[in-house]
Structure formats: C-alpha cells, structure tokens
UniProtKB/TrEMBL annotation:
A Pfam family that the UniProt record links to this protein: Cu_amine_oxidN1
Keyword terms of this UniProt record: Signal
Domain Copper amine oxidase-like N-terminal, first and last residues per copy: 42-90
Record has Signal as a keyword: yes
Name the UniProt record assigns to this protein: Copper amine oxidase-like N-terminal domain-containing protein
Species for this entry: Paenibacillus plantarum
Domain of life where this protein originates: Bacteria
Signal sequence bounds: 1-22
Amino acid sequence: MMKMPKWSKVAIVGTLMGTCFGAGVYAQDVLQRVDAYLRSDYKVVVNGQAVQLANPPLIYNNSSYLPVKELAGYLGAVVNWQENTKTIYVVPRVNSNQPTEGNESNYTEIILQYPYAQYVDYQGATYPVLLNNTDQTYYRLSDIERMGIRTDALRKAKEKFTGQVYVSESELKNVWGNQPPQISYTNYETLVITEEKDPLKLKKLREYVTDFQFLPINGVVIASNPIIIDKLPEENTYSYLTNDNGHFYLTKLTLTQSTGWNNEIIYFVGSSSKEDIEAGKVVN
C-alpha cells in the first residue's frame, strides 16, 4: 500500500489570488497552469506570535506563498481588490515619512464650522469620510482608521462639542504622500452613511431623511440639512448629524424590523434624543 506524502499536490491557476478574492474571468493569454504544494504542516510566526492561517502556505518552485489578505491582517495592513484593473492594493499602516513620536493626550481644540461628508477612493476601495473645515481641512479619525491609515504619531484635534477626534490634512500628508484620497465618482449617494451595508436599511434611512428634511413648526419651516449618519455599535441604531438653521444637532435613529403581507422584511425608523450639541454656543 502506497504511503501518502505529507502534502497535497494541487493545480494553481493564475496569480494565486483565490484565497483573497472571488475568481474572475481572465483572458487565456494571462493564465498559466503550474504544480504546487499545500503545506499545512508549515508554521507561521508574525511579530513573534504563532498564527493559524485559514489557508495554508503554498510551495511553488522552491518559494513559499502566503494568503495576502490573511497575512496583511496580522501585519496591520488593509488589502483591497479592484476588479476593473485586476489590481491588488496592499495598504500598510506605517509610512516611512510618518513621525515616530507623538502625544495622544494633548489635542488641539476645534469646533464644527463647515462639516461635510463625502465618499473618497483610496488604494482600490471607496470609503465614507466626515471632514470639517476651520483653519484647514480636518478628517475624522475613525474614518481615517477605517481606510487603513495608521495615525499613531500624528498630531490630532478634538472637536469641542462632540468630543470626536480629527486629524488635519497637513498631518495626513506625512502618511499618504503624493497619493491622497480622491473624491469618488463611483458612489453617487448624496447622503453618506457609514458602516451599514444592508440595502433595505440604507433605503429606509434615506427615505426618513427625505421625509423629515423640511418640517413646518408653528408656520415656520425648519430646514434640517443632513451631514452624515453613523452606524452605532448597538444593533439597528444610528447617530444622525444635521445642521438645522445654522445649528448642529445629533439625533439617535432606531430601525424596527417587521414583516409585510408577503412575509418580506420591512423596517420602520424612529427618532429620539435629539441633542443640541452646541447648546453653549452663541448663535449670531
């Protein structure tokens, strides 16, 4: 009886991207069939810590191949796949020009002055960001970190009324160099909503914003100009930032799930705790 080897022989097609991205259709002239070996007995140690990869290392032509997306996650990087250009973007969280020392407790104070939200393209993916223009443009820290940009040693600013942390564009240039985010022309949504991916929930939130954007109160129409909706950790709960007649408010939105006549899922939006986040600010 033949003894099986410790590895499995497999046929690998193309550039070994299957462990990271969905397979696409490629032209015949870019395909190359090769023989390689999966080595589940290989151990991988990252920064001194042993890690268990879902996809084992692969050996081809005496070289080791590791799954890009998994390994990048352990190294603190973000991996994006752009289908139209067939490009893998690996976004490291550390840039050679980034400062090595910083102060995480001594923040510059800023206030919401001209906040606006938009979608930007960066390193092969599209991200929602909240920006605030005062003496210069500031990016909200949580959005920057979602993009895979490490800001450990960058000087930061804290917004006086919300307590949210921002990083100035001049500081961020130390990280992204000559490849800054660009305004996205692939996402045309005028209302920016972060983190939420469910199309039904997104649709209902946008309908709510449209329905309550102009409210007549005692004969006076109050214009609520939407800025951004952020998904909160609590399920189906969101924070909605608006500019109402020159004053900024945060409203907590909650989605309630129900079932329609044909057993389809439907959502209702409720609002509560509308907070005047500039209660101490004198309005001119």
